[in-house]
Amino acid sequence: MKYDGAVAIVLDKLVELGYFKTKSEAIRAGVLELGKEYALLNPLEVEAELVIAKTQLIDAEIDAGKRKLVPLEQVVGKSRKRK
Fold first, then answer.
1. What are phi and psi of 38, to 5 degrees?
2. Contact 20, 26 (CB under 8 A)
3. 10 pLDDT exceeds 70?
4. How far is it, in rounded angstroms, from Cα 10 to Cα 4?
5. DSSP per-residue letters across 29-52
6. Residue spans per domain, the chain
7. What would the pLDDT profile of 21-75 be if each residue is shown by its tens digit?
8. Are the C-beta atoms of 12 and 27 separated by less than 8 Å?
9. Is 60 helix (H, G, I), strand (E, B) or coil?
């Protein structure tokens, strides 16, 4: 996206002064603040959405063979052997 005028100046300053590493980070933070200001963010709902998104990502990685599941019994067995 291209920004000009006051928006571009503010974004440049936020990055230049080290508040954010990138303009994208600054924009994301601004969107979250707007969500708070307009009471669009319920912390429990946000956390639930993040958990769902992470679970879906892990499920997709498992389906694609990029992630392997280890049975709990195997993990517990390994930790008991180390003691």
1. -100, 15
2. yes
3. yes
4. 10
5. HHHHHHHHHTT---HHHHHHHHHH
6. 1-41, 42-83
7. 999 999 999 998 998 899 888 888 889 999 999 999 999 999 999 998 888 888 8
8. no
9. helix
